[in-house]
From TrEMBL:
It comes from the Bacteria. InterPro entries: Gfo/Idh/MocA-like_OxRdtase_N, Gfo/Idh/MocA_Oxidoreductases, NAD(P)-bd_dom_sf. One of its GO terms (molecular function) is nucleotide binding. This is Gfo/Idh/MocA-like oxidoreductase N-terminal domain-containing protein. Residues 24-140 form the Gfo/Idh/MocA-like oxidoreductase N-terminal domain.
Amino acid sequence: MRRSGTLNCEMCRSDPRGGKMEKVKVGIIGAGGRANFQAKSIRDSGKGEPLIVCSPVEEEAKKFAQNYQIEYTLDWKKVIENPQIDAVTVSVPNIFHYEIVSAALKAGKHALVEYPMTLSKKDAEEMIKIAQKKNLVLWVSLTERLENPHLTIKSQLSAIGKPLFAFASYIAAGLRGWYVDLSLRGDPFSAI
């Protein structure tokens, strides 16, 4: 399945003299499937350049870094402290989203975070305030909107007319690891 790039053009910088766009230097925090998708999309977009990946599991970080020919670290704070980094992507267990993204925003980095943004409305509102105060992009990645089934349906709407009803189901490819642990993922019904 071919997927569209996810690099937000608002993160792209241009030369103040009206020159060529500079590539956004991106730190990838997390080295799993979503992080790989994001790194590939950023690289393939031509608008961004992954510079470093972080994972607490050294073998994962090393493999990811070799695949993209970038540096790696085991400490996410090193990514955020890196003065070359303009933006970060955060694809880690949901319980860590608030701590990492807030720190990145406070350090002046744009941030793309996997859904859910955080585990509480209060934390989400605080992250938004930090981003607004620092004039930074805070993007919650809802990547399904950019995947082929959704893009195909969207492209066919003019031919089929306004949908009156839709039904969809999603079968995950074997949930495992942190995702099945509610203490790390968060309770999806906690805000109800």
